[in-house]
Structures are given as structure tokens and as C-alpha cells.
Amino acid sequence: MEIIEAFRALRGMRVLGALFDGTLRAATLDDLGYRDAGAWSNLASVYYGATRGRTLQRAAREAAGDLSLDALRVVEKHTKKLLRGAAVSEWELRVELCALRGTVAEIDRLAAARVREYNRAVQDAAKKAYGRRALRGGKNTDAQGLRTFTVTGPERIIEGVLSGVRAEAKQLRRQDPKLGYEQAMFDAFLATGGQGGGAAREMVVTVLPLAESTKVLRQEGDETIFARTDGTTITGAELVAEAMVSEDYVGVFDPVKGGVNLYRDERFANFKQRVLLSAETIVCPHPGCTTPASECQVHHLTAWEKGGNTNIEDLTMLCQVHNARNDDDPDKPPKNGTMVREPGGVVHHPPDGGPPRRNRHPIRDLSAMALARS
Ligand SMILES: [Zn+2]
Question: Ligand 1 being an ion, which residues bring their Cβ within 5 A of it?
Fold first, then answer.
């Protein structure tokens, strides 16, 4: 019990306050082996140091409440990404982000979505983002003789490259089942030169609520943001421009009846189900999961052997990992929990019988299910 009390005492603002008033020194934390002591010191000056926004600074400290040090660092990381010309100031944004609650990973994604929303409204936001494109690293060799580099760019460009690489990797694994997923991705990347190969890429569906669809067709509502089943988002204006050239689909959703129509003909029944299920959830519905629906598998909520149907309400998209982990057999002792369809969407029932948890990924606010609910 003592150790949990010790962790509780390490609440973010309490530690930052102590670092700022000198009752705790960063050097002492260094000596104790805390890698992040320097970053905490910097945060202490942000939240307690001199600033012109003293009222908002105090409001941010209060909003933060019991947030952990890790959560506060995530807040700062996203605050620093606010573009000049946004509708809020840095301090107003900190107050808002400090009020977020959840796991650090959830706060990370919610904060990213929030800042993205503000940045999107800034003139030339896309141009500014493109200006930040980068390929970094690749200079250091590790103990196994390997090097790593990272590529950063606008989401649509990166997703475009990766969907081509993924399609190629899928073919490579079909030819050689022993090939691991990441190995195949590497081979496909080399084979395609980062262009994406000849293999057909995953189909992407854009979720369009019925009320908005007429606006988009009339080319109004340029600022409205829609979710796509590859986990990216698109504005009405971009959608109209894309519709002229791309092979992707637009699914229109009625709040009551669900999927109304898919532009382009359905090829076979399962295909349409897959598309509607993808649009419903956008990413794997398991809490904390970020795998886009376009990379998910169709999962039977009631296992086929237990009498599950292939009706759409008995199905959901689920990523490979969470599909494999789901406790399909209700007669066996619970191990990882089960996915269950409840009013408002598919949720996870944990194995300990605790309350159901849903995936709080912010892009899911634009999923067909969320739009149908609102
Ligand atoms: Zn998942």
C-alpha cells in the first residue's frame, strides 16, 4: 500500500510546484535516476514562472488537478504545435488541454485532435504542415548493425505511401507465409521504392452524414470535416476535389436507418457489410487501439460456432491482435474480455467484470455511429 501512496504523491502540479519553489531540486532527481528531471524543471517554469498570462496560468494549474507528469508533458507537446494565427492563445489552449482526463495515451490523442482542429482553421495550415515534412535519423548504427530513419509528412501523403506498401506486403506474405508482417513491410518498401506497388491498395470510405451530403454535393460546407476508414480526415472541399480522381467510396449515413447508399455498385454482400462496419467504427473499437478499419478483420460478436449470424449487428471490424485476443467461448474462464455491441456502438467488456470501456480515439467522433447518435 505504501508504494501506491508514493506514486499518488507524485501528481504533476505538486512536483512542479516543489521544483519551482526549490523544496525539490532537479539535480536530486537526476541522482535518483529520473531521466525526465530536466523536462520537469522546464515544465515547472511554464506553470509557475513569470508570464503575462498569470490568470490563465493559474486556471491551467487548477484544471490540471491530479494529472500525472507524463500527461502534463503530453499537454505541453501539443501546445507547442499550435500554429500562429489560431483562434486561441497558448495559455487558453493549456487550460483546455489540462482539463482532459483519461490514460496518457487517450489524452495524447484527444489533445492532438483538439490542436489539429484549431490549426486547421489557420490560413495556409496545409502549406505550413507541408513545410514541416522531414526525413530524419539513419545516422547511428545500433548494437545489431541496424539503422532507423523516420519520415514525417501530411497524413494523406504518408497514408497514400503506406497503403501501397501494405498492399505489396500482403502479396509478399501470401507468397511466403513465414515472412513476418514488419519484415514484409520492409521488403515491400524496398521493392516499391516508397511509391506503393502495383498491388491494389486498400479501399477507403469517407463517412458523410445524410444532412451534410447535399451540402458537399452543392460544394458548400467546405470547412466540415469527415472521417475516412483509413484513419485520416478530409474536408468537404478536399472531398469534392478527390471525388473527381480517386477510386475511393463515399458512404452516406442516415441517423435512423444507418447506411443509405454507397456510391458505386456493391460487388458482393460481404463487401458492403465490411464497408458499413468500417464507416461505423473508423478504427478498431478496442479501447486504446489505433488500427484503422481498412486494416481490420470482420469479427463475429457471437462466435459462428455459438450460433452467431452474419447479420450486420452481429459483426464488427476488429484488428488482428484484438480479434485473436477476444474471449470467443463464453463457457471458458475469461482471459482478455469480449467485444459486445451495445446501444451506441461496440464496447469492450473487461475479463474482471468491470464496467465496459469504449475506444475514445478522437477520430471516432466522426464515425458513422457517432454521427448517427448526435
Ligand atoms: Zn485493435
Answer: 284, 286, 289, 291, 319, 322
Closest CA to 12 of 61, 49, 79: 61
Task: Compute, in angstroms, the gap from residue 331 CA to the centroid of ligand 1.
Answer: 24
* 230 within 8 A of 202, measured Cβ to Cβ: yes
CA trace torsion 89, 91, 92, 98 (10° rounding): 140
* pLDDT, tens only, 78-121: 999 999 899 999 999 999 999 999 999 999 999 999 999 899 88
Domain parsing of the chain, residue ranges: 2-123, 148-201, 205-262, 269-373
Q: Distance, CA 219 to ligand 1 centroid (Å)? A: 35
pLDDT value at position 222?
59
Side chain identity, residue 4: I
Strand partners, 152: 134
Q: Cβ of 138: how many Cβ atoms within 10 Å?
A: 10
DSSP symbol at 17: H
Q: How far apart are CA 313 and CA 149, in angstroms?
A: 43
Distance 15 CA to ligand 1 centre (A): 35
Q: What is the pLDDT of residues 303-328, one digit of tens each?
A: 666 655 556 777 889 999 999 999 98
